[in-house]
């Protein structure tokens, strides 16, 4: 594995200019649609087979959110850290530079506007438009197929706009490809106001999924050939996510960007708070839940053979396999791009488990900082700093585990923070002295200096002393020379995520009972009592859940825990506008260079990240794009 540089050319500039050129000589080659590289639209839509290839080309532009170096939400924030500098074991250094506060306007990191990993989302939008413009020319296509494929391409166009909106804020809308007769002034497009873009995205999704006559399938039935393609539930779930984001503080009632305007004076952000945005989001979330459940979606529960695992392990696997079990009942939309989805993510996350086996392919470097470990609840289902029965003051003091202590090796010494925590803590994270259940056995993590899971060389170790267990499939097996990783579709959306979005929207619209109902379903799956019981019984703030502000705080922490290491926190901190407070906190870990209990379990400072608000809420547009198209205004702070 080596450093692969990002595409240095500006795709949007090329896109804008190439739209004024003949379609015969497109700016970028088609993928898998034309034999012998003869790029003609006539051939691409000459028959059903070629048209279907073009549809799959549209899918191919989906960013690989399952890849640790292609999704900023894995290593671009504070949920995982790694050693630095890295000279191998990476594809791109971009996300790590973002996390370290090194984003820039000359050569932006993870630049999906112009092209990252060789492709641009504008290119994906253009491909969708070409498909939609030409699909009616296919002579041997059945009407129901034409309708479904049209709906899929329309959704993908909406999704690419959404991905850009989340990264860049206000963006141009590319509803149609410009004709070859377009004037230079027509090519120099403007960014559109955020509300306009949101309404456009939601409108596209409504057009193809908004009612029961949708051409999108309720579920995928041809599991050998169609898994990963869009269903109606998937489309509506993404619409729900878009509208929740649009209703959140970053986009709703935010004055930070009030001065951001187009060159013609058009404001790009509406600084006025609009409560109806939350109501629209709530309705969208409920519709998505209802459609998903009608299609058979339900929260995943691990169902092993009778007597093969103890109750605590069963709850742990409820949590882990909700993500890692292929095509499980909770998955609404899973990404299958790249051939072996989540392969690299698992190798980045998994440490050396077996003291008698060493495999160079297990990196174990995707390391959660200490503050992530502190976010999980106690076993009583409340925050560690609120639980009046849990010794918060002694959380860094050593204790010795007994047979009654879940998730810790009997007789091992570790800090109090690791004792009497909720099941999601032990399911999601591993640490020195923890256990790691796999299908072929139970492993002991021992990660002090020179121990099998710890640092032995300049790479292949956790810089914080923690490991991301949750995203490693329990079927992974290895020996000294080979590694078998069971790939699984990366959950772009699962039902638990949708429940949390609905709970958030319900609380913001004055419906706390609805919020608690869905929160409590997730807590029950994780082996916890209800919010009402846990807070009233154990918390120093027993009535916290009874106010909108208190329940908002609970929902946000519940979301952070339930969605940990799934790429949610990075974006949530931004939309909640809590990123400056959270992402400017120093990163701490344990003293992994030590070999004794006392020396290892000392808190060590690793880095002081830098999040500059409001600048870092959005990516910069590469500066030469602004020079080529003076109608594009730069994001605030850049």
TrEMBL record:
Keywords assigned by UniProt, alphabetized: Cell outer membrane, Membrane, Signal
Main location: membrane
Residue ranges annotated for the RagB/SusD domain, each copy included: 330-638
Keyword Signal assigned: yes
Signal peptide: 1-26
Family: Belongs to the SusD family.
Protein's UniProt name: Starch-binding associating with outer membrane
Naturally occurring in which organism (per UniProt): Chitinophaga eiseniae
